[in-house]
C-alpha cells in the first residue's frame, strides 16, 4: 500500500504541540471536509471542498462568557458526531465550550473550578468523545470524566454525570467507532499514568474494566470492534481486548512519544500506520517521515483510510496523503 | 497550562545568557577581575533567595514581554552595560538555544537534565566564591524537590507549555546553521537516527499474544529511521554524569555568535496574531512582575569608571546598524516598572 503527498492546506496560524491536535469532519452531502487545529488560545478551522478549489477559514478564540479576563489556552478541539447533529467541542484551562459544527454559534459553556491562586496541579479539560446517541464525554486534569447529555437540537445540554475513576489527568478518550451495536464497551478513557478505563454508556455509565498502565502516559487511544488501541509516551502501541484487558499485541512503533493515533473504522487501518483485523493479524503497511517536524495530530479523512492528514508543531499547514 | 514551568524557563535561559556573556567578556578582553565580578553579580542576583521563592510559586508563564524585562534587569545586575541592539541579540540567542534544547530532548523529563547541565556550568563559574556557591546548591535542592517526583505526563505538560511560549520563533543562529542543526528557514533539524530515549525500544517489532498472555508471533518491520539502543539514564541528583549534551556550553572564543533575523511575511503575520490580542489584565501581570523583581536587587554602579559596555556584535557600527534595521515584528517592548512592594493576590490570566 502506498500513499503519496497531496497539496497541503494552509492554516492561519501554526499548530501547538498538544496531543491529538487535528480534528476532521467529513460533510458528504456538501462535498466538504472541515479541519480544526489548535494554536495557543485559538482554533483554526478550514473548510475544504473535495475538488480542492475552495477553502474558507474561521478562527475561534476561547472567549469565556461572563469573564473579563483574556482567553485561556485551548488543550483540544474536536468534532463530536451524534445521530442528529455534530458539535464542535473546545476544551481549555477555563472550561468546555460547545459550538454548532461550523463554529458559528456557541451552544453551551461549562466552567471548570479554577482556584483563585494557581495551584501546583494544573487545571484544564482534555479528552473528548461522542458516545452512542446523545452523550459527549470530556476529561479533566483531576482525572474526572464529565458526561453531557445532548438533545437532538438546541442548547439544552446538561451535565448528567461525573465519572470518578482516574487519579491522574485524562489525556484522551474514545468511543467505539466501528458502528457495531454488538460491542458492549462504548467508551475508553486514558490518563497520564497509562491507566485505561472501559465504560458502558447509559443513564448511569458503568465501569466495565480497568486496564492498568505501566507508569507511562497514554496520550492517544481508540476503540474499535471491542479492541482498545493505545499509544504511549515510550513510542509503543498496545492493543487490548477492552472487556477483559487481555493484551493482544504490542508494537514498538516509534522512537518518540506518540502524540496521536487514529483508526479508519471501515477498514481497520491504524494511522501510525498499521492495520488490524480479527482474529488478530497485525500487518505493518506504510511508513512516512515528515522531515524536521514534530507531528502532533494525525487523522484519517474518511472511513476507509483512503486519505489521512497530519499537523506538526510550528507548521502552518495541514499535510495530506492519499492512497496511490 | 503547567504552573511549574517558569523556574525551568528562567534557569535555562539564564544559563544560556551566562554562556554568551562569558564568551563575549573573553572575546572583548575584559580584565579577568571585572569579568569575574560581572558573572558573580549576575549569578548571585539570579539565585537570590527572595527572587527564587517568588519564581518557584505555582503560576502561569509570563508573556515574552514580561520575561524579557526580567532578563534586562538581570543582565544589568552588575557593572556591565548592554545597548539595546546587543540586549536584543542576547535574548534572541538565549531563546533560540533553549527552544532547540526543548525540541531535541529525547524525553520530556530530560528537560530537567538540560537544566542540570546549565546548573553544573553555573556552579563551575562561581566555584571560588563559597557564598554564591551555597545559593546555587540551594537551588539544586529546590529543583530536585519540585521536579524529580513529577510523572512523565506532567513533564510533557511542562514541555508543551514551553513550546507554546517558543511557538513561531525561527531566528537563525549562525552556530546552529554551521553545525547543521538548523535549516536556512530557521527550523531545527530533527534527526531520525541515533539512540532512542531511555525507556523506549528501538522501533520495528510487533509481538502478538494469545489469550493466556503467551507470545505467539513476532514480526519485524522497517521503521524508516536508523535508531540504536538507548544510552544509560543521566543523573537527576546534585552531582553525576548527565549523559545528555543539550544545555552544555556550545560557545567558545573562536565561535562567534551571530544571528540573522528571518523575517518572512508569514512569520510576522503569525507573531502579530499572537502578540496584538489586547490584554486587559496587563496591570495584574505588572503587579506580579514587580513582586518578582522586588527580589532582584540591582547593583547601583558605584563608580562610573568601573562600568563598561559589552557588545554582542563585532563592531560598534554593526551594533548601531542592527538597532536601526531590526524589523518591527521582532522588537521586544520592555516594561519599565518600579520594583515596589504591591499588595493583592494574583488572579489567573493568560500571558503569551
Alpha-beta classification of chain B: mainly alpha
What's the helix-strand series of chain B? HHHHEHHHHEHEEEEEHHEH
Which pair has the most extensive contact?
A-B, 69 and 69 residues
Describe the oligomeric state of these chains in a short phrase. Answer: heterodimer
Topology as H/E string of chain A? Answer: EEEEEEEEEEEEEEEEEEEEEEEEEEEEE
Total count of strands of chain B: 8
Percent strand of chain B equals 5-15%
> Helix amount of chain A, in percent?
under 10%
- What is the strand arrangement across the widest sheet of chain B? 1-8
Question: With helices defined by DSSP (H or I, 4 residues minimum), what is the helix count of chain B?
Answer: 12
Which percent bin holds the helix content of chain B? 40-55%
CA radius of gyration of chain B is: 22 Å
What is the CA–CA distance across the termini of chain A? 8 Å
Average predicted local confidence, pLDDT of chain B: 81
Q: How far is the first residue's CA from the last residue's CA of chain B? A: 12 Å
Shape of chain B: globular
Structure description:
The complex is a heterodimer of chains A (324) and B (352). Chain A has strands at residues 3-5, 9-10, 23-27, 32-39, 42-49, 55-61, 74-81, 86-92, 95-100, 106-111, 125-131, 135-140, 144-149, 158-164, 170-175, 187-191, 196-200, 206-211, 218-224, 227-232, 236-241, 247-252, 262-264, 269-271, 274-277, 281-284, 295-300, 307-312, 317-323. Chain A is mainly β and 324 residues long. The radius of gyration of chain A is 18 Å and the shape is globular. Chain B has twelve helices and eight strands. Chain B starts with 5 loop residues before the first helix and ends in a 27-residue tail after the last helix. Chain B is globular and about 75 Å long. Chain B has a domain at 5-191 and 235-253. Chain B has helices at residues 6-27, 32-46, 49-55, 64-75, 84-104, 110-125, 130-147, 152-165, 174-178, 265-275, 282-293, 316-325, and strands at 80-82, 172-173, 193-195, 205-209, 215-220, 226-228, 259-260, 308-310. In chain B, α1 (6-27) runs antiparallel to α2 (32-46). At the A-B interface, β22 and β26 of A face α8, β4 and α10 of B. Chain B: InterPro entries: OSCP1. Chain B: This is Organic solute carrier partner 1. Chain B: It comes from Esox lucius.
Amino acid at each position: 500500500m502506498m500513499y503519496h503527498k497531496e497539496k497541503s492546506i494552509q492554516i492561519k496560524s501554526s499548530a501547538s504541540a498538544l496531543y491529538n491536535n487535528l480534528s476532521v469532519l467529513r460533510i458528504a452531502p456538501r462535498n466538504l471536509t472541515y479541519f480544526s487545529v489548535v494554536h495557543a488560545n485559538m482554533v483554526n478551522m478550514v473548510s475544504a471542498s473535495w475538488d480542492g478549489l475552495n477553502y474558507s477559514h474561521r478562527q475561534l478564540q476561547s472567549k469565556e462568557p461572563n469573564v473579563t479576563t483574556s482567553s485561556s489556552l485551548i488543550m483540544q478541539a474536536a468534532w463530536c458526531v451524534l445521530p442528529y447533529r455534530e458539535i464542535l467541542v473546545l476544551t481549555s484551562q477555563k472550561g468546555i465550550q460547545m459550538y454548532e459544527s461550523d463554529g458559528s454559534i456557541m451552544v453551551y459553556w461549562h466552567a471548570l473550578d479554577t482556584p483563585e491562586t494557581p495551584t501546583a496541579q494544573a487545571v484544564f479539560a482534555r479528552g473528548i468523545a461522542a458516545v452512542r446517541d446523545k452523550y459527549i464525554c470530556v476529561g479533566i486534569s483531576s482525572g474526572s470524566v464529565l458526561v453531557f447529555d445532548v438533545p437532538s437540537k438546541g442548547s439544552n445540554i446538561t451535565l448528567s454525570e461525573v465519572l470518578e475513576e482516574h487519579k491522574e489527568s485524562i489525556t484522551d478518550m474514545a468511543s467505539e467507532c466501528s458502528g457495531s451495536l454488538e460491542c458492549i464497551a462504548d467508551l475508553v478513557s486514558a490518563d497520564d499514568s497509562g491507566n485505561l478505563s472501559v465504560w458502558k454508556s447509559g443513564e448511569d455509565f458503568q465501569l466495565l474494566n480497568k486496564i492498568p498502565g505501566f507508569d507511562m502516559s497514554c496520550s492517544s487511544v481508540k476503540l474499535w470492534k471491542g479492541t482498545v488501541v493505545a499509544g504511549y509516551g515510550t513510542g509503543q502501541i498496545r492493543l487490548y481486548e477492552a472487556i477483559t484487558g487481555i493484551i493482544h499485541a504490542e508494537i514498538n512503533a516509534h522512537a518518540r512519544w506518540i502524540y496521536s493515533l487514529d483508526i479508519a473504522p471501515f477498514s481497520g487501518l491504524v494511522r501510525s500506520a498499521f492495520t488490524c483485523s480479527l482474529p488478530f493479524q497485525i500487518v505493518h503497511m506504510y511508513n512516512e517521515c515528515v522531515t524536521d517536524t514534530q507531528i502532533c495530530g494525525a487523522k484519517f479523512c474518511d472511513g476507509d483510510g483512503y486519505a489521512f492528514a497530519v499537523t506538526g508543531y510550528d507548521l502552518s499547514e495541514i499535510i495530506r496523503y492519499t492512497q496511490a | 497550562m503547567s504552573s511549574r514551568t517558569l523556574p525551568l524557563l528562567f534557569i535555562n535561559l539564564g544559563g544560556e545568557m551566562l554562556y554568551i556573556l562569558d564568551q563575549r567578556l573573553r572575546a572583548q578582553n575584559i580584565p579577568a577581575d571585572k569579568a569575574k565580578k560581572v558573572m558573580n553579580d549576575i549569578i548571585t542576583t539570579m539565585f537570590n533567595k527572595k527572587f527564587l521563592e517568588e519564581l518557584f510559586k505555582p503560576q502561569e508563564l509570563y508573556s515574552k514581554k514580561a520575561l524579557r524585562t526580567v532578563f534586562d534587569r538581570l543582565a544589568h545586575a552588575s557593572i556591565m552595560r548592554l545597548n539595546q541592539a546587543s540586549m536584543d541579540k542576547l535574548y534572541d540567542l538565549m531563546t533560540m538555544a533553549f527552544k532547540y534544547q526543548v525540541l531535541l530532548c529525547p524525553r520530556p523529563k530530560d528537560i530537567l537534565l538540560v537544566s542540570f547541565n546549565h546548573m553544573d556550568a553555573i556552579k563551575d563559574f562561581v566555584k571560588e566564591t563559597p557564598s554564591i556557591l551555597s545559593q546555587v546548591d540551594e537551588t539544586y535542592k529546590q529543583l530536585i524537590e519540585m521536579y524529580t517526583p513529577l510523572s512523565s505526563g506532567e513533564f510533557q505538560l511542562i514541555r508543551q507549555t514551553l513550546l507554546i511560549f517558543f511557538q513561531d520563533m525561527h531566528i537563525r543562529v549562525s552556530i546552529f546553521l554551521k553545525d547543521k542543526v538548523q535549516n536556512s528557514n530557521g527550523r531545527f533539524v530533527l534527526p531520525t537516527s541515533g539512540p532512542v530515549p531511555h525507556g523506549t525500544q528501538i522501533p520495528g517489532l510487533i509481538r502478538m499474544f494469545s489469550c493466556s498472555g503467551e507470545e505467539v508471533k513476532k514480526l519485524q518491520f522497517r521503521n524508516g529511521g536508523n535508531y540504536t539502543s538507548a544510552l544509560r539514564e543521566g543523573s537527576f541528583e546534585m552531582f553525576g554524569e548527565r549523559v545528555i549534551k543539550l544545555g552544555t556550553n556550545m560557545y567558545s572564543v573562536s565561535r562567534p555568535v551571530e544571528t540573522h533575523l528571518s523575517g518572512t511575511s508569514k512569520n510576522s503575520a503569525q507573531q502579530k496574531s499572537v502578540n496584538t490580542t489586547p490584554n486587559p489584565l496587563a496591570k495584574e501581570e505588572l503587579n506580579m512582575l514587580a513582586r518578582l523583581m522586588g527580589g532582584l536587587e540591582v547593583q547601583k554602579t558605584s563608580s562610573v569608571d568601573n562600568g563598561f559596555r559589552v557588545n554582542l556584535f563585532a563592531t560598534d557600527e554593526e551594533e548601531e546598524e542592527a538597532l536601526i534595521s531590526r524589523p518591527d515584528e521582532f522588537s521586544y517592548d520592555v516594561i519599565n516598572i518600579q520594583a515596589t512592594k504591591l499588595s493583592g493576590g494574583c488572579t489567573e490570566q493568560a500571558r503569551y
